[in-house]
Amino acid sequence: LNSNWELALAGDGSRLAAATLERQVYWMDRSGNLRWAADAPDDVAALRCDAAGRSILVGFASGRVVRLRWG
């Protein structure tokens, strides 16, 4: 667990998820273009991308886990 930020890369390299100390979650394409961003309701403890770059799992410090999925 890194208390400052979290990064996760899709297995095929098509997407990158990042979370910041300021409780921001970002979803970017392989060129670094921002595809989606949101405020997190709690500190992000972990991020995981699926292999195809279609979804991420966000684990919060509270223990809550949320799956975010895109077409």
Task: Name some characteristics of this structure.
mainly beta, single chain, 71 residues
Can you tell me about this structure?
- The protein is mainly beta.
- The chain has a 4-stranded antiparallel β-sheet with strand order 1-2-3-4, with no helix packed on it.
- The chain is globular and about 30 Å long.
- It starts with a strand and ends with a strand.
- The model has no long low-confidence stretch (mean pLDDT 91).
Topology (elements, then pairings):
Blueprint: E1 5-9, E2 15-20, E3 24-29, E4 34-39, E5 44-49, E6 55-60, E7 65-69
Antiparallel strand pairs: 1-2, 2-3, 3-4, 5-6, 6-7
Structural class: mainly beta
Radius of gyration: 11 Å
Order of helices and strands: EEEEEEE
Summed over residues and divided by their number, the pLDDT gives a mean of 91
Can you list the strand order of the major beta sheet? Answer: 1-2-3-4
* Count of alpha/pi helices: 0
User: Level of helix content?
Assistant: under 10%
State which percent range the strand residues make up: over 45%
Straight-line N-to-C gap: 29 Å
Let me know the number of strands.
7
Task: Give unreliable regions as ranges.
Answer: none
Q: Characterize the overall form.
A: globular
